[in-house]
Amino acid sequence: MLGDFVSTDQISGFVTGPASSENDQLAMFDGVTGELLKAGQTITQYLDAFLVTLYNFFPRKISVWADIATTPVVGAGQIFTLAQHTSGGIGGGKLMSFAGSVVDDGGTQKNSATSGFYLKRIDFENITPEHFGAGPSLDISDDGPTRKALIHPLPCRLSRHYHLSSVVSPPDGKVIHGINKQSTGLIATSNFSIPGAASSVLEVVSNCNYSNFTVDANNANGGGSKRLNCCPVGPNVKNFHVSDVDVYNSTGYGHVTFGSESDPQVTGYYENCHGYNCQVPFEQIGALDVTLVKCTAEGVAGRTLELFHPYGGSKNVTYISCRAWGESGAGINILTTNGHPVGPIRFIDSSMIS
After folding, report:
1. CA angle in degrees (0–180, nearest 5) for 142-144-145
2. How many domains is the chain built from?
3. Are 289 and 316 in contact (CB under 8 A)?
4. DSSP structure class, residue 339
5. What is the residue range of 241's domain?
6. What pTM did the predictor assign?
7. Are residues 185 and 216 in the same domain?
């Protein structure tokens, strides 16, 4: 049997009685053993916690993401259900209240109507563009929600094709995976922003893991002779892992490492990736240790210059069970440039079919 609530000034003598104010602290004892079960809460804190427990039996429903700003909270730990992000019945999920304030990121956390509390998603393993308001089908409006999902530090899952209108640079360690290459991917808009001589759709970053989707540059050229690359690797990127990511229709490079020719540092791994209708499907510049396994490249007349192109000071580039075919200026082209030696470059069980 549980004993009565007592205020802290009565605990030492185990004297029961009413608290004198709402700020008195409470303690709960087992009436048989005298064991202290709970202490340190004021009456107000206890009642707030009780209300949170009560509300969680019947979670409050929120219609759309924007309504969080007008939703009151009784305390931390309260559960809510979000019906949808914006419309279409997608992008919903479970939310929980937390003490504090946050910057609204448009899809995972937002301040509530009650000062000092915010709501945050709790029932997901992967961020999706739908969490940020993407609709059910390919649309020019995909760019904002998809970009937010791709630059968020949590893993991102792609479930369809999405439009992008400018380059996306995810944080290091980013995980992006699709449901399969046939129905999942990123597609450049026809007016993709290329502010300089070249730009890219999705950058590859250190310790990333990209898998099971496509990147289509959509033959975008900035309205002239500018180049749009698919998936470039920056000069200081380490330990990238790209598997089952196919690249298409690039006026520039498909999969390419842009390392330093004089001080190559890029390390990483490609597996089962395909390049089609790119100026160069696979190129390694300034690579220190890059391996390609079961990668394939298909050239197209009038577009493709080389299919496999390790050069520019690259070291320890290894192609294993790779294949290339189609129209191109060269199948495998290994070059030393600007006095920077290349090698070793290894082709193991690989071929060029004309």
Report:
1. 70
2. 3
3. yes
4. T
5. 129-353
6. 0.83
7. yes
